[in-house]
Amino acid sequence: MSGLPPPSPPPRPGAVTLFVCFLRLGAVSFGGPAMVAYIHRLAVTGKAWLSEEEFQQGVALCQAVPGATAMQCAAYVGLRARGLRGAVCAYLGFGLPAFVLMLSFSVAYQHALKVPLVTSMLTGMRALVVALVANATWSFGRSSLKRPGEIAIALATAVLFSFGGSPFPIVAAAGLSGALMLRGPGHAPQAKEPSRTLGWRTTLPPATILAFGAAIVATLVLLSPHLARLGLVMMKVDVFAFGGGFASVPLMLREVVDVHRWLPSKVFMDGIALGQVTPGPIVITSTFVGYQISGFLGAVTATVCIFLPSLFTLVLVEPWFERLRSSARFRGATRGFVVSFVGLLASVTLQFSRLMSWDLPSTLIAAGALATLLLKVDVLWVVLVGAVVSAVIL
Questions:
Q1: DSSP string across 282-343
Q2: Cβ contacts of residue 194 below 8 Å, gap of 6+?
Q3: pTM of the model
Q4: pLDDT digit string (tens) for 229-280?
Q5: Which of 168, 182, 202, 211 could make a disulfide contact with 332, Cβ separation 3.0–4.6 Å?
């Protein structure tokens, strides 16, 4: 028996296979970060494309870089299985169902506003959005705020944002504070695979994405300066969205509503509500925002630009991640970025609450939604039931 050759590893999946598998998964990807477990089932348990150690390191990487965790995890699987082509195919496949459904909702939105029943439903769903953001604040805070330094950074972020500070320098300052204050204790796990040789082959994939992004920006500038501004805003939001898709909400709110005044706050809240009944991450709200601003081209521009920087960051950092994770300053900066969004989300909760015209029905809807979310009821069911209740009682 000892003379038998070891079993050969399973063949690497092709780019088309990755696209189709993640397209199927993306069509039912409700639950945001919870979808990581389903990606694990596909890539490790089912297809054996990655080892358990590879996947766990990938999850740590996806949590350390900006962007929606589940989207980043899909791209990581594709990257390890088939290089840059695999990452792009997995990323596109996983995100395409959410884009198509949100685009359909965006097209129907303006027409639906003329229907009284829909208007009542949207009023109730805005109350639901307050509950959704409040629940995200609580979930972020409970899992992130463990030490006095983390609490201090979150409180400072909330105060600065509430007094009109721009979220981008606030988040940058939080990262710097984390690098100085949150460096220890602890150490990074040792790698269980041999270190890869780092050279031009590791720089080619991120350089390719960077060149593609530059070409998009140049094309938008020539096509429409307004679309170029929209695209650059979405890229900036994605660059700073550490901690998952919900981290993009306060950044996008400030840029779209307060700075550029492209949309009223209540329309933006409607986009968040619709983002909860589509598969994929909450950041797919960018499709809705882009369509309301500039139609189909705006939707495509906003969607591509909200996902491109985080894909670039993932591909850039992945070869170096094991080394970076051994740096206490890197881990501290990452913690600072993440805990800053507890403060930002708390401020957004208060801002959305002030926008509501509270009466008894909307108060009951928000309170009921928050209670069920805290009991871990799936957010999709909370939103769907809340929409039906809103249409009936408002």
A1: GGGHHHHHHHHHHHHHHHHHHHHHHHHHHHHHHHHHGGGHHHHHT-HHHHHHHHHHHHHHHH
A2: none
A3: 0.85
A4: 999 999 999 999 887 778 888 899 999 999 999 999 999 999 998 888 888 8
A5: 182
